C-alpha cells in the first residue's frame, strides 16, 4: 500500500513537470484547426507549423542570432572571469569584500542598469547591434561566472602549484600547464550555464533590439500579434528554442543545483 | 584561507625569460591584481556607472529631450504618495512570500519523498529538472495557451471532470495567483533538489540515536532535520527573493501587467521605457534596488549565523 502511494505521488509529480513541455511538442504538430480544439486528442500530425516558420518568419535568423549572442558573450565572460576567479580563490584578493561587490551585481534589478545603458547605447549607436547585446549579456553573466568559477578554483589543491613552483615554473606557465587543465571541467560547466542564461534572456533583448539583432526569445514574443496569436508556429519555435536547454538540464543534472546556487550547495 | 597564500620568498624568478617587468609581475601583489583588472574595469563600467547615473537622475525631472532639472526628493515623494506604486509593491511582496512558502513546503515534502533508493531514480530526477532551465518567456507564453478559457487543455481537463471553466487570466482575482503558479511550476524543482542534497548529506548517527529513543518521525523532523537544513532553506529564500522581486518575463508572456498584476519591476519598466520619465523611473529603480539590498543583507547575515551554528 505504501509503495503504491509512493509511486502514485511520483507519477503525479512527473505529469506536473513533464506534461506542459510535452504539450509544446504535441501542439507544434497540430494543424491550425486542431489547435483550437483541446478536446481532440487524436489528430493527424502535420509539419505545417515548422514549414510556416521556415517560409514566412525570420525565425531561423533569430535562432542564429541567439546562438551568436550566447557564444560571444560567454567567451567574453570566461576571458574576464577566469583570471579574476583564480585571483579571488588563490590570493583572497580584496579580502572578500571585492568578491561580495562582484556578486551583488546579480542582486541588481535589471532595469536599474537598463536605463543608463539604453541612453549610452543610443548615443553610441549600439542599439539593435549584436555587439551591444553581447555587452549586456556579458554584464549579467560576469558576476555569476566569477562566483561559480571561484568555487571550482578553490577545489584545486594549492600543493600542486607549490610543487610546480619548486620545479621552476613561473606563474604564467603554472596557470597554463597546471591550473588550466584542472579547471577545464568546472569552466565547461560555468560556460554552459552562461550560454543558457544568455539564450533564455528576454528583458534586455526586448529593450535593445528591433530588427537586426533580434534573438529567438524576442522572436517568440512577436507571435503575439495585434489581431491573433499564431499558437501553432509559436509552439513550433518554442519547441526548437527550448530544446538546447532541455538537453542541458538532462546532461548537467549533477551540476544544476550547484550552478543555480552560485556554488553554495554541491548537489 | 590563510594557508593558500604563498609566502613571497618562495617565488622563483624565471631565468629563461627573466626580464625585469616580468619578474615584477610575478611578485604576488602585482600578479593578483593584474588578473583582476579586467573584472574591475567591467565592474566600474557596468555597475558603478549605471548605479550612480540612476541615483543622480532620481533627483531630476528628466524626461527625454528636455534638459534635466534638479528637483531634490520630489520623485521619491511622488512614489511614496502613489497608490499605483503601493499596490505594485504589495503584489510583489505577496508574490515573494506566497511563492517561497509554497516552494519550500512542497519542495521539502517531495525531497523527503525522494530521499530513498528506488528504481529509475536517475531518470525521474532528470525529468524533474527539465522545467528549471527552460526559457521563462517561452514557457509562460505557452501556459497562456494551456490555460486559455476556450481552447486551453487545462480548462478542457476541468471540463471532463465536470468542473466549470476558470478564466485564469481574465479575472483580476485569479490572474496574479496564476502567474505565481507558473513561477512555482518552474522553480519547485530547485527547492526540491537543494533540500534533497541537504537530506542526503545529513549525519546518520543522531537519527539512529533518536530511533533508539523511539522518537516520532515528526519529532525527528522538527528537532533534527529542520535545524540542520536551516542554512539551505535560507539560501533558497535568499536566491528566490532576489529572483522573484525581478519577475518580468512571466508577466510579459501572460497578462502584460493587465488585470491588476503589475509588479514592481514592470512598473519601473513602464515608467522608464514607455513613458520615458527617466527621473521617476530612476527613483523607482533605486528604491527597488535599495529594498532588495536590505532584504538580501538581512538574509545573508542570518545565513552566516546559521552556518556558524551548524559547525
Highest-level CATH class of the domain at 59-215 and 241-260 in chain A: Mainly Alpha
Please tally the helical runs of chain B, counting DSSP H or I stretches of 4 or more residues: 13
Please report the total strand number of chain A as a whole number: 0
How many structural domains can be distinguished in the coordinates of chain B?
1
Q: How far apart are the termini of chain A?
A: 31 Å
* CATH architecture classification of chain B: Orthogonal Bundle
CATH topology of the domain at 59-215 and 241-260 in chain A: MetI-like fold
Q: How is the biggest beta sheet of chain B arranged?
A: none
Using CB atoms under 8 Å apart, which protein chain pair has the greatest interface? A-B, 98 and 101 residues
Structural class of chain B: mainly alpha
Radius of gyration of chain B: 26 Å
> What would the principal axes of the Cα set say about the shape of chain A?
globular
Uncertain runs of chain B: 1-16
In short:
The complex is a heterodimer of chains A (267) and B (311). By secondary structure, chain A is an all-alpha fold.
Would you write up a description of this structure?
- The complex is a heterodimer of chains A (267) and B (311).
- Chain A has 267 residues and is mostly helical.
- Chain A has 12 helices and no strands.
- Chain A has a domain of 177 residues: MetI-like (MetI-like fold), CATH 1.10.3720.
- Chain B has one domain: MetI-like (MetI-like fold, Orthogonal Bundle), CATH 1.10.3720.10.
- Chain B has 311 residues and is mostly helical.
- Classes of the chains: A mainly alpha (267), B mainly alpha (311).
- At the A-B interface, helix 1, helix 3, helix 4, helix 5 and helix 6 of A face helix 1, helix 2, helix 5, helix 6 and helix 7 of B.
